[in-house]
Amino acid sequence: RAYSRELTATVDADQIAACLIKYAHAGIPEAEPLLFLPDEKARSFVSYTNGHKPFIEETSPLVQCLKEEDGIVDLAEERAWPEALKTHQAEVQALDAAVLVPMKNGRDLLGWLALNRKSSGQHYTPSEMSYLATLADQSLIGLERANVLRRLQARVTELDTLSQFSQVLNITINMDDLMELVYTSYHRVFQVNDFYIALRDDVTGRLYMAFCVEEDERHESKEGKGHWVDSPHVTQAANTGQPSFLTDENGRFWAIAPLNAGAETIGVLYGTYTGQSLDPHKRQNQLFTVFADRTAVALERLLTRQNLEEYARQLEIINEITLSLAATLELEPLLNLILDKAIELLNTEAGTFMLTIPDTGELEFRVVRGPASDHLIGTKLPIGTGLAGTVAQTGRPVLVNRVQEDKRWFDKVDEATTFESQSILTVPMLRQNTVLGVLQVINKKNGAPFDESDQRLLMSFASQAVVALENARLLAQTDEA
Question: Torsion angle of alpha carbons 141, 146, 151, 155, nearest 10°?
C-alpha cells in the first residue's frame, strides 16, 4: 500500500524507476534489482540503476521471450528455463540474473525487473516472488501514465519543431540556402548520415541531383543537371508520389520521400541512417514525410520565383539588344552582334549564324563563335543538310539535347576540333514566309539542356534581329544606289 501511495505522486519514468527499485530492495534486502524500461528513440530497453544504463535491443530474443511469457521467469535452474532462452544462453547469462519479472499490458512489454543471485546462494522464496509480482502489477498504471505523458511531450516537441521549420522555410529566398537549411534540420531531427535532394528536369522529366551531402560533407561536384539520379527506389517515389522505407544490403536504412507540391511531384528527398537509427519506428517515418511536404512547398515557391525572375531578366536583355541592333546599321558588324547577343542571352559555349543564298537556297556560314570558326567561315551548306539545313527547309526551330544521337546533325565542326557538341538550339530568321538565315547556339555553359522556354526566347530574339537585318540591307542598297 505504501508503494501504491508513493507511486501516485510519480510523473515520469525516472521517478517510477527510482520508486520501484527502492521498494524491491526494501522488501528483499539481498536483492540488487535492475529495472529495464523502453527507450523508443534507441529502439531498446535501458537499465535504470545507479546511473549505469546498459541497453538491450527490442529485437533481442530475451525481449521476445518476456513478451510471450506469463508471470515471473525463474532462472535459478537452467534446465527450467523457457525453451526460447535455452538457445541464447550467453545473452541471458550476461544479465547475471536469477529472476526476471516482466511488466506487461496485454502483449505490450512496458519493462522488467532483473534480480541478481543472492549472496547466500539461496533461491528466491515463493513469498518473495509474490511480492515482486505485486510490485510489477502496481507499477503498470504508473508506467502507462508516464508513457502517455512522454508521447504527449514528444508530439508537442514535434509540432514545435515543424512550426519552426516551416517559418524559416518561408523567409528563405535563395535556393541553395533553402536546401542547406533543409539538410541541417533533417540532420538535427533525424540524425541522417547521408542526405540528397533530387529535382525533376522540366525538359527530360528525369531526376537530377540538386543537393548532395555524404558523411556530413557537401559534394557540389555531384550536383546539377547532367548528374542524373536513376535509383529505382528514388524514381519510384517520384513516379508514384509515395514514400518508401527500406534497408539495403549494407545494413543502411533508407528513407525516401517524394516532394509533392499539390498534384505535382517536383522531386525526391532521401537520406540514410545507420547504427541505432536503423529501421526507425513508424512515427519517425511519418514525420520524415511531413518535413518533405513542407520542403516541397518552399521549393516550388522558389522555383516559380526563379522562373519569373529569369523571364523578366531575359525580357530586359531582349529590350537592350533591340536597341543595340537598331543602332548598328552596317551589315557585317550587325551579323557579329546578332550572334554574340544570342550567345550571351542563353549563356552558351558556341554558336553560328548562317545566311541563305537567295539563288541556290544554300546556307553560308557568315559568323562563327567557338572552335574552328576560321575554318567554317564561307562554308556552304545545302538546304536540308544538318540541323541548320532542316530548319532552313521547314522554317521551324529544332531543339536537340543529344545531338550525337540525331541523324540530322552536321558533325564536321566537331571532327575538325576537340570540341564536343551536346545540345544545339537552331531557329530560323523569318521574314513573312521566307527564311533569311539560321541562328544556332551550342551547349549551355552550365551543362543544362535547352528547353522550350529557351526556344521561345531565341525565336523572339530572332524576330527582332530580322528587323534590324532588313534595315541594314535596305540602307546598304540605298547607299549603293
Answer: 130
CATH of the domain at 37: 3.30.450.40
Q: Write the pLDDT tens digit of every residue in 58-98.
A: 778 888 888 887 788 888 777 778 777 777 777 777 777 88
Domain-located, residue 352: yes
Strand partners of residue 198: 209, 268
Domain extent, residue 97, equals 2-151
Q: Which residues pair with 104 in a beta bridge?
A: 109
Interatomic CA distance for residues 389 and 353, integer angstroms: 12
Q: What is the pLDDT of residue 277?
A: 45
Cβ neighbours of 175 (radius 10 Å): 17
C-alpha dihedral, 246 to 250 to 251 to 252, nearest 10°: -60
Q: Tell me, yes or no, whether 38 and 144 share the same domain.
A: yes
Q: What value does the mean pLDDT take over residues 179-205?
A: 87
- Report the 10 Å Cβ neighbour count for 366: 19
Same domain, 432 and 301: no
List for the chain the helix, strand, coil content (%; round to 5).
50, 25, 25
Strands 253-261 and 434-444: unpaired
Residues in the chain: 481
d(CA 322, CA 318): 6
Residue 271 identity: G
Q: Indicate if 128 and 180 belong to the same structural domain.
A: no
C-alpha cell at 461: 530574339
